[in-house]
Amino acid sequence: DSGVTQTPKHLITATGQRVTLRCSPRSGDLSVYWYQQSLDQGLQFLIQYYNGEERAKGNILERFSAQQFPDLHSELNLSSLELGDSALYFCASSVRASGGRDTQYFGPGTRLTVL
Amino acid sequence: AQKITQTQPGMFVQEKEAVTLDCTYDTSDPSYGLFWYKQPSSGEMIFLIYQGSYDQQNATEGRYSLNFQKARKSANLVISASQLGDSAMYFCAMREGKTSYDKVIFGPGTSLSVIP
Fold first, then answer.
1. Residues 48 through 87 of chain B touching chain A, CB cutoff 8 Å
2. Residues B92, B45: Cα–Cα separation, whole Å
3. In chain B, which residues have their Cβ closer than 8 Å to the Cβ of A55?
4. Sequential pLDDT tens for chain A (115 residues)
């Protein structure tokens, strides 16, 4: 158990809908990262927050957005869902914003299925 | 350009034998970190081992060790005394040190199957 929690574990929805994925980082971690893992794209970095502020953006679509709240939990919002958004979405957390031995610990993931 | 290459999409190893999973990387940054993660069929990503670019010694964590060859830009994971529970996908990842943000790039992964 990494200490990172993600809810829900599974999510099934229809095209065009909007969903929210939730992540609670490990105690003491200030950075939260979101990743998307799909069969064709592999593991792709989406976005990073550090202590409530957006720190870095990766391959995140405009239909997707995220935020980190004062209690450091984070939410990833996916809207106007398409079939291709079906994937495993991971949240990871680390202590610092960048560099060094700062390891990202991953949550169990949310498996999103868009029908 | 592919920054992390894992040339072995699938590997088989006999139980109790050692296995090496290959990883090569590409960076011009002298400061970087290399990670290995394990993803069993249940889906979670499990951190295994870390090697910093300035570390003088190869990293070891229990049955996992990292064969770090800086000049060749390779960071191969060695698993000793393989166990059935080692069957999983293994991902090599890199963080470059001097970027303004902290982005970890993952390789495509190697699927390891341990045979009894």
1. 50, 52
2. 12
3. 101-102
4. 889 999 999 999 999 999 999 999 999 999 999 999 998 778 898 999 999 999 888 889 999 999 999 999 999 999 999 999 999 999 999 887 655 567 889 999 999 999 9
Task: Give the residue from chain B lying closest to A10, CA to CA.
Answer: B43
Q: Using alpha carbons, select from A27, A30, A20 the residue that is nearest to residue A4.
A: A27
Strand, helix or coil for residue B84: helix
Which residues lie across from A48 on neighbouring strands? Answer: A33, A56
Yes or no: say if A39 and B108 are a contact pair by the CB < 8 Å rule.
no
Task: From chain A, pick out residues whose CB is under 8 angstroms from the CB of B37.
Answer: 106
Give the SS3 label for residue A83: helix
